[in-house]
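REQUEST FORM: STRUCTURE PREDICTION
Request ID: SP-0412
Submitted by: Lab K.M.
Chain count: 1
Length (residues): 648
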Amino acid sequence: MSLAQQFAVYSQWRSQLALVVDDFRKWLIAQELSDAQSELRLSQLLERLKEDRLNVAFVAEFSRGKSELINGIFFAEYGNRMLPSSAGRTTMCPTELLFTPEKPPGIELLPIQTRSSNTSVSEFKRFPEEWQTVPLDITSADAMQAALRQVSEVTRVSPDEARALGFAVGESEAELFHADAEGLVEIPRWRHAIINFPHPLLKQGLVILDTPGLNAIGTEPELTLSLLPNAHAVLFILAADTGVTQSDLSIWQEHIDNGGGKRGRLVVLNKIDGLWDELKREAEIEAEIDKQVRSCASILGIDAAQVFPVSAQKGLVAKINGDAELLAKSRLPALEAALSEELIPAKQDIVRDNTEAEFADIHLRVRGLLEARLASLREQLTELTELRGKNKGVVEYMMGKVRAEKEEFEAGLQHYYAVRSVFSTLTNKLFAHLGLDALRSLTHATREAMLEASFSKSLSDAMQEFFKVTRGNLEKSREEVEEIRSMMEAVYKRLSVEYGLKLPAPAAFSLMRYEKELNRLETWCDTHLNTALNLLTHEKKNITQKFFEEVALQVRKAFERANRDAENWLKAIMAPMETQVREHQIHLKRRLESIKRIHQATDTLEDRIGELEGVETELLAQIQSLETTAAALRQLLVPEPVQVRRVA
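STATUS: Completed
RESULT:
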C-alpha cells in the first residue's frame, strides 16, 4: 500500500473514530447524562481529531536532493517540480507545507530581520501582519513554480548585521557565510516560510517540513527544540557519492539521533543514479550501493535496514512519464512503503492512546453513575415490594428509617465539604509550584542575574540555577499530586464503605513527560549555549537573548501544557465524587417521597412499583446502549495491522 493509500485509510479511520465519539457525546446529552466536564473533554477530543496533523521533516545538508525527494514523493502528479530543485542551495529557510482551509492558497514569508527581536517563529505565527503573503495560483504549474522559488531568495547585508541575526560569518570563502568582494554577506531573505497548498495529502492533515542545512539549523534553534522533536517522521538525506560527511554526522548526532528510542527516523541515501554505470554489470552496481548503505549505517550507528538507497530525480521522472521500470530502479516505492509503515502506525498509536484514555475515563464515570442509579432503584423496589400487604405502622417505620438514613448522610456531608476545602488548599499549593506565576518570577530573576553577570561562570551558574529551581518545582508538584491522589483515594473508599457509592479508583496523573522535556532542554542548553567555548566567544547579550528566546520559551510551553493537564486531572478526580454524592442525595429524597405517597394512599403502591420497574427497564437499556457504543469505539481502536485491513 502506497503512502497516499495508507494515509487515506488512516484519515478514514480517524473520521470514523470522530463520528463514534460525536455520537457518544450526543447520546450523553440526549440521555441527560452529560455534564460540563464530560462535554468539555469530548469537545476537545473531537477538535483534536479534526485538526490532527502528521508531521514529516526532511533534514539534510545542502545539495543532497532533499527538495527533489519531496517533489518525487508528494508532487509528481503535477507533471513537474513544485519545490525549487537545482544545483547548490535551494531551501534557504525552514519551509512548512500544509493546508488550512480557512486561508486561500499562498506562501507566508517571515522576514529574516525578525531574528533581531526576542521573539520565536511560533510567537510570530500569532501575528499575520508580520508575514509577507504571496498568492499561489494552483491552476498554473509555471505560476506555482515561480511563486515557490521565493523560498530560496537571498539578501546581502554587512557582516555585523549578519552576525547580529545569528549567522556565523567566517573569513574563508569555504565558509557558508562569508563577505564577498564588496564586503557584504549573502544570507537567506526569509526566516521561515509556510506554504498553504490544497494537495490531497495536505488536506488530510499531512505537514511537510523542509529544512535548510546545518548552519541554518544552528541559527534557528526552534527547529531542534520543537519542530524536529515533535515530527512523527524524520527523513535524513545523504548523497550516495559522498556518504556520511562530517557535517552530515554533526546534524545526525546533534539534532536527529536519540539512541534509537523513537520511531520514524529514516535515512535516505539519495542520488544512487550516480553509481549507475553502463560499463558495470547489474550485480556490481548493486554490490557498490549495498557497500555504501552498510558504510553509512555503520557510521551513524544504525541498522542497515534503516538506510534506503534511492534516486529521487529518476523516481520523479519515472512517475511523470509513467515509466514503471525506471520507477522500480529508482527504489522510491520502497522508501514510500517504509515511510507509510513508520509514519502512520506511529501517529495512529498516539491518537489511539489519547482517545482511549479520554473515552475510558468518561465511560467509567457514566457506567458508574448508571449502575449507582440502578442499585438505588432496585433497593427502592425491594423496599416497596416488601410493603405489599403491610399495615400503615410498617410503612411509618420504613419512612422513619429512610428519613434517618437521609439525615445521617446529610450530617456526613460535613466531612465531604471539609474534603473539598482541603482539596482546594492542596490545589493552591500545587499551582504555587507548577503554575506560570512561579515560572515568570524565576524567568525574571534569571534574566536579571544573566544581564548583571560579570564573568562567564556567573552566566553559566544562572542558567544552571534556572533548571535546578524549575526541576525542584516539578518535584514538589509531583509530591503534591501524590498527596491529592492519596487523599481522594481514602475519601472514595470511605464513601463506598459507609454509603455504598460506586466510586472507581481515582485517576492517576504523572509529570514524568514534563520532567523528561526539561531534561532534554537542559541537555540542549548545555551543548549549545552553556559551554566554555560559547561563553568565551559570544557576547553576554547574545547568549542571554538565545537562552530566553529559545530555551526559556520552550520551558514555558511545557509548563503551560502541564498546567492544562493538571487542571483537567483535578476536575476529573473530583467529578465522580460530586456526581455520586448528588445522585445519592436525590435517591434518598425519592425513596422518602415514595414511602410518604404510599403512607398517604396505599393504593398508589402498585402504581409506584410499576413506575420504578419501567425506570429499571430504561436504565438497563441505557447501560446496554453505553456498552454498544464502547464496543464500537474499542473495535476502532484495535492496533494495526488488523485495523488497517478492516477499514480498507
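NOTES: The domain at 53-112+193-330 is CATH 3.40.50.300 (Rossmann fold).
Reviewed by: T.R.
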